[in-house]
Amino acid sequence: MDELNGWRRTHYSIDLTPNCDGAEVIVFGWVASIREQGGITFLILQDREGILQITIRKDEVSPSIIKKVKGLREHSIVAVKGRVRSIEKAPHGAEVIPKEIKILALAQKNPPFKLFSKTQPSLDKRLDLRAVDLRRPVNRAIFKIRHHTLAAIREFFLKEGYWEVNTSKIIATATEGGAALFPILYYDKEGFLAQSPQLYKEQLTMAFEKVFEIGPVFRAEPSRTLRHLAEITSVDMEEAYVNYEDVMMTLSKLTQYVIQALQTRCENELKLLNVKLETPKLPLKRYTYSEILEILNKEGEYVKWGEDLPTPALKILGEKLPEFYFITNWPTSSKPFYIKPCDDNPEICEAFDFMYGSIEIASGGTRVNSKRLLIKKLKEQGLKPQLFEYHLKLFDYGMPPHAGFGLGLERLMMVLTKRENIREVTIFPRDRLRLTP
Ligand code: 4AD
Ligand code: MG
């Protein structure tokens, strides 16, 4: 095996075009394929950005190079120092004639799937070797889109004057209902992994007014589905002096901003995934919870007023509403204690879900900012106000009216990349059965 020593990359694969003809370059990557044809060896080198042809001809390279690449297995890591030659038939119109090749790591085994094949083994098999699986062009595309989605989300919030914050992921009490918590041993006490930064982001409106947080949250989901994981990336925002109407508009603009960014920054990746992203027109469609029940009823799916929407109901919405939309005015009893009931009808509340077809991407709403009402609502939901003392006491020092949302990044990625299984858009997914890699 060779050492890296002083070699450093001069170009990524796709940067080498006919314009570079004659240039001396150093490229790194893994072997995507290697084949011999009429005495010439074609080594296709792949890096993060794409592929590059390395052409090894007896009359052009030293015999030691030919010996070195003989029997080289796919996925081995190589470095090539050589000269670029423009050639029409090669990818992006250029090949590299090596002067020197280093083998930096030898692949010992062939993985149970091919990089470029259309047919693939089960997702589980691929997840077991996830970092290798990520070398497949489809995955490169998905995660490049994720990278640019996150960048665009940050840009949007910074542009709109939000401060980025991080709150603790080790918490003392549940905020989104007790069932989905992971308990942990916190020294000699019981603690939990955070299900949401909910109460912390609300508290931060007291001092910072407009905040956002992008971070992990944990849900001990009891069942295994195509859209639930035990650990997700949550995009949260919270803002003082606004209500759920303002927040829905902010979320709509954020969605539009992200999609427009992806249209220009990830054109090739979207094409590879066969996805056409249309810029949604604002304002986005809105349905009240009661209107959604009517739509479902017409389709023969009866949901009792007050209940959450069950899976068969969501399936119907997937067919009837294949677009971004909001469901507003939920029954107060179906939403967490911190959501503000409507002033004119406390049976319903100022909450919304942000949807695409059958997929819930985000939930949000206006928050309760009266201490008395918050205590009453905690009790109504069977929670002990004493456990929330650390939060409730802040209300004695002026809690501004505020509102916000929490968005599941993986759910958004499912929609943006048109993937059915949330695991496809998660680098290292966690569910009931998977704790590695
Ligand atoms: O709807 P949820 O539970 O709402 C909250 O956490 C509130 N604190 C938000 C707020 O500001 N009012 O979770 C927010 C989003 C969901 O809409 C969904 O996209 C995602 O997080 N989510 C999950 N995604 C994948 N797997 C899971 N187990 C998820 N649980 C929630
Ligand atoms: Mg929700």
Q: How would you characterize the overall build of this protein?
A:
The protein is α+β, with helices and mostly antiparallel strands. The protein folds into two domains: 13-105, Nucleic acid-binding proteins (OB fold (Dihydrolipoamide Acetyltransferase, E2P), Beta Barrel), CATH 2.40.50.140; 132-425, Bira Bifunctional Protein, Domain 2 (BirA Bifunctional Protein, domain 2, 2-Layer Sandwich). Helix content is 27%, strand content 26%. It contains twelve helices and 16 strands. It has helices at 63-69, 123-128, 130-133, 137-159, 198-204, 244-265, 267-272, 289-298, 311-320, 371-380, 389-392, 409-417, and strands at residues 24-37, 40-47, 50-57, 77-86, 94-105, 163-164, 170-171, 183-186, 189-193, 210-218, 231-240, 285-288, 324-328, 351-356, 359-366, 402-408. The strands form three sheets. An eight-stranded mixed sheet has the order 6-10-11-16-15-14-13-12, sandwiched between helices. 4-amino-1,4-dioxobutan-2-aminium adenosine-5'-monophosphate (4AD) binds next to β11, β15, β16 and α12. Magnesium ion is lined by residues 353, 360, 363.
What is the topological layout?
Elements: E1 24-37, E2 40-47, E3 50-57, H1 63-69, E4 77-86, E5 94-105, H2 123-128, H3 130-133, H4 137-159, E6 163-164, E7 170-171, E8 183-186, E9 189-193, H5 198-204, E10 210-218, E11 231-240, H6 244-265, H7 267-272, E12 285-288, H8 289-298, H9 311-320, E13 324-328, E14 351-356, E15 359-366, H10 371-380, H11 389-392, E16 402-408, H12 409-417
Parallel strand pairs: 3-5, 6-10, 12-13
Antiparallel strand pairs: 1-2, 1-4, 2-3, 4-5, 7-9, 8-9, 10-11, 11-16, 13-14, 14-15, 15-16
Helix pairs in contact: 4-6, 4-12
Bound molecules: 4-amino-1,4-dioxobutan-2-aminium adenosine-5'-monophosphate (4AD) and magnesium ion.
